[in-house]
Design brief:
The chain is α+β, with helices and mostly antiparallel strands and about 260 residues long. Helix content is about 25%, strand content about 30%. The longest helix has about 45 residues.
Length: about 260
């Protein structure tokens, strides 16, 4: 009799614990969905502040005398960003990054540390999805040698999760996928990708500026050698580099994309 009562209590306790676990899971799922929805709405609203436009890139002709009238004109696509309006919404806005054929199309913010926007969105509201943010050591008055930008890899495909597409070599069969847009308040850039790979998080060491050109070139050569794909892009210490970083499918790995910034 006592054994049966004990079994009944164990069964009741198991059911109660199971129900509590289900409730907790449902609450977490609701919060996760709510946070993703909130960030999606913010991104949709902010997308009106940036668009790709055609511009004329003028370069002095090498074959002709360098007079004002003798220039080569090249039609290029650049990002046109209303930074004034963005900074009214959030003064921490420093740039915009857009990767074609993905949903990566975000204003970039920067704080005094790398934790603030890890769990806050563009409106500075608490949000586990965070936002796309620049390393606190990045300089935007005059770009750092290596501008580092971070974003979460969300399971619903938002934030920087689409960077996983770049790990597939077939992605680069489309030449347009070998570059992306990056804009600051003072300049527009096309970022020419020269390295894509994943590595253990414990091995990632992000550096924005180097003690000398030799160490910067060593960094460039090192990440080139780690790339899953040979882009054939020439990069030297005279160039400026941008690095996009996100988690892999688990927190043990990081996906890194390195590109040379070409001002337009």
């Amino acid at each position: 009799m006592e054994k049966e009562k004990t079994k009944d209590w164990l069964f009741i306790a198991f059911r109660i614990i199971s129900i509590l676990i289900i409730i907790v899971c449902l609450i977490c799922l609701y919060i996760w969905h709510k946070q993703n929805t909130a960030n999606g709405s913010i991104q949709e609203e902010l997308n009106s502040y940036a668009k790709v436009v055609e511009d004329i890139n003028k370069n002095n002709s090498e074959e002709e005398d360098n007079s004002e009238d003798e220039v080569n004109q090249e039609q290029v696509n650049v990002l046109s960003v209303d930074f004034a309006s963005l900074k009214e919404k959030n003064p921490d806005t420093v740039a915009w990054v857009k990767v074609d054929n993905t949903n990566i199309d975000f204003p970039v913010v920067k704080s005094s540390n790398n934790n603030y926007y890890l769990k806050r969105n563009f409106n500075k509201e608490s949000n586990g999805a965070g936002w796309i943010y620049a390393d606190y050591r990045d300089s935007f008055d005059e770009l750092s040698q290596n501008t580092v930008i971070y974003g979460h890899n969300r399971r619903n495909g938002t934030m920087f999760s689409n960077l996983t597409f770049l790990l597939d070599n077939n992605w680069f069969a489309d030449e347009n996928n070998k570059r992306f847009y990056f804009s600051t308040e003072s300049s527009n850039y096309v970022a020419e990708i020269f390295s894509v790979y994943s590595m253990k998080a414990s091995s990632v060491g992000t550096v924005t500026d180097f003690p000398d050109n030799e160490q910067f070139e060593s960094f460039i050569n090192s990440v080139k050698n780690m790339s899953n794909y040979d882009f054939g892009v020439d990069v030297s210490a005279a160039d400026r580099v941008i690095t996009l970083c996100t988690c892999g499918n688990n927190t043990k790995y990081r996906i890194l994309v390195h590109a040379k910034l070409v001002e337009k």
